[in-house]
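> call design_seq(struct)
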């Protein structure tokens, strides 16, 4: 079996930079052909070739599910950028290849498609490639999708120092297929923020870039503060500053990033410290071991090598298709419908460009059907210049919308069942796939997410401070739902009682969200998953009864202490025998008794 191996020292492959509008990456036809060939060879001898085929498959963005013979395909969207043509291509994938018949927006701004048969995977990669999308290095020990602020370039709140998206695209292009990051000790997640408010949450990433400006001799110089070593999961950690100011336009920030990757790949000079334990192979563990000062020293030693001074073709790397409004007259003439005013209040922000707004499409739990993909593509062409951006809250942002077109846009979104308000508020729950498909999942994070959203709507709480509480759910400690960042976070877990297993939620309180995302929630207690909505209602009621005037929820948690809530939730912890309390022994959306069925995450192999 001739598997494409990750090169260790070869020159970075020359990939054309002249891209069609809206394309950030080029997908190579030979990569897809190679995948089809190797998948066929694997089918002939699955047991004998598993160890070779799995890392190859992962590097192509194809991830095994807990269900045998099913794959999850992850599509990279640098900065969340997507156009109408690409949405239509993903409609085909969701309709014809996904057993779920839907796509899923992740907290990493990717799209994922589940229940795809391995034998048809190459067809999916081709459909995506023809639309300018790639899955290459969306999984595996590589530089993953690069996230950014969906309001970059249009923000009117003064937090944006300069337009970071072209620099983000340059970084992503440079790292794709780059030999230095094809076989890292572990995955590498990156975010770009627009300025000091840190709008993309760089502190919890392996690497983050925060826009900065300095002036020398009357000249403005763009650059980035570079941070390394953040992360969530079992050891939440805030990233350290590794470089105070790396210039942007000459590509210095990319060279600094490459040096950091080289240090990580060499494990900081510690022989097999990371690779011998894949569960602790993220760069945050290396920083914890050697400290930021030693890491900085090693980075500088890398940059002192001749490669560190080689120029980058920044104009080619920074290419972006132009974004702007749809040409022609703005669609209008429709009277506002039911719920319009609330939708404008929660889902619409003014751009700094007069007359235009950015609209958040609330996508429940990030799930989009084929019909919604196609409908959104048409809406993007009509209202938003044919473009959109996914965001970390699993929603879709449409930019460059004429303000006068909002009633017409809202009407078309409602026709797709995507006209809900409450974007980023308590009813807009975030959840990873959990046990619906993930090998690592313990509980159904999607199921509890739906239950919480329904419960919140039933409670009908119009308290503005309660509305600001955001809830995130992860199916296991790995935290793909980013529950550590939530004001109220749920982590899938379990315990045994009365001779049986019970699906549970560990409750975390006090996370600070994405903006300046370095404040992590604290675990308070564990309750049966079926009682999580009731427990959340009790938490909110205690907050309402005991807060100070105008005190926000996270500030309240800090003042009273997270552990104050543990005894308040005792009433939800006791579970009777199975024959008396059978619902507690079943997970959300399931009709059988719960069992922990958890495999090994493929990225840890």
């Amino acid at each position: 079996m001739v598997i494409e191996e990750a090169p260790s020292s070869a020159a970075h492959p020359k990939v054309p930079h002249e891209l069609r509008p809206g394309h950030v990456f080029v997908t190579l036809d030979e990569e897809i052909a190679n995948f089809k060939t190797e998948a066929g060879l694997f089918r002939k001898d699955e047991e004998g070739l598993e160890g070779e085929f799995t890392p190859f498959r992962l590097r192509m963005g194809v991830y095994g599910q807990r269900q045998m013979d099913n794959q999850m395909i992850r599509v990279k969207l640098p900065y969340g950028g997507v156009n109408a043509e690409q949405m239509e291509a993903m409609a085909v994938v969701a309709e014809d290849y996904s057993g779920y018949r839907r796509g899923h927006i992740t907290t990493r701004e990717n799209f994922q498609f589940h229940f795809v048969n391995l034998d048809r995977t190459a067809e999916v990669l081709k459909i995506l490639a023809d639309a300018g999308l790639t899955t290459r290095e969306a999984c595996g020990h590589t530089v993953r999708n690069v996230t950014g602020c969906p309001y970059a370039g249009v923000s009117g709140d003064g937090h944006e120092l300069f337009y970071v998206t072209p620099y983000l695209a340059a970084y992503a292009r440079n790292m794709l297929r780059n030999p230095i990051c094809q076989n890292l000790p572990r995955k590498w997640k990156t975010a770009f923020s627009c300025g000091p408010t840190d709008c993309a949450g760089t502190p919890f990433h392996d690497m983050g870039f925060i826009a900065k400006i300095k002036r020398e001799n009357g000249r403005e110089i763009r650059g980035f503060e570079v941070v390394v070593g953040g992360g969530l999961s079992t050891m939440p950690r805030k990233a350290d500053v590794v470089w105070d100011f790396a210039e942007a336009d000459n590509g210095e920030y990319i060279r600094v990033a490459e040096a950091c990757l080289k240090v990580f790949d060499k494990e900081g000079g510690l022989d097999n410290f990371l690779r011998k334990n894949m569960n602790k192979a993220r760069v945050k563990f290396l920083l914890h071991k050697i400290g930021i000062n030693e890491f900085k020293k090693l980075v500088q030693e890398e940059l002192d090598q001749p490669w560190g001074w080689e120029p980058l073709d920044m104009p080619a790397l920074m290419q972006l298709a132009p974004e702007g409004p749809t040409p022609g007259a703005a669609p209008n003439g429709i009277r506002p419908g039911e719920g319009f005013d609330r939708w404008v209040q929660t889902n619409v922000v003014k751009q700094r460009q007069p007359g235009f707004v950015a609209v958040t499409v609330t996508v429940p739990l990030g799930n989009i059907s084929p019909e919604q993909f196609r409908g959104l593509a048409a809406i993007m062409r009509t209202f938003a210049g044919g473009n959109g951006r996914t965001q970390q809250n699993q929603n879709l942002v449409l930019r460059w919308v004429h303000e006068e077109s909002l009633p017409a846009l809202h009407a078309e979104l409602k026709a797709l069942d995507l006209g809900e308000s409450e974007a980023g508020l308590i009813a807009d729950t975030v959840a990873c796939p959990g046990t619906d498909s993930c090998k690592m999942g313990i509980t159904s994070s999607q199921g509890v997410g739906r239950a919480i959203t329904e419960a919140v709507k039933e409670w009908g709480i119009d308290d503005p401070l309660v509305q600001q509480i955001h809830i995130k759910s992860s199916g296991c400690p790995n935290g793909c739902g980013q529950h550590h960042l939530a004001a109220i976070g749920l982590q899938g877990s379990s315990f045994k009682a009365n001779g049986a297993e019970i699906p549970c939620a560990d409750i975390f309180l006090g996370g600070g969200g994405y903006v300046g995302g370095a404040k992590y929630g604290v675990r308070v207690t564990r309750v049966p998953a079926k009682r999580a909505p009731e427990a959340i209602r009790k938490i909110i009621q205690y907050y309402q009864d005991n807060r100070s005037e105008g005190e926000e929820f996270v500030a309240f948690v800090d003042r009273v202490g997270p552990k104050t809530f543990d005894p308040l939730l005792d009433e939800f912890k006791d579970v009777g025998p199975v024959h008396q309390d059978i619902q507690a022994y079943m997970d959300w959306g399931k009709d059988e008794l719960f069992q922990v069925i958890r495999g090994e995450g493929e990225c840890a192999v």
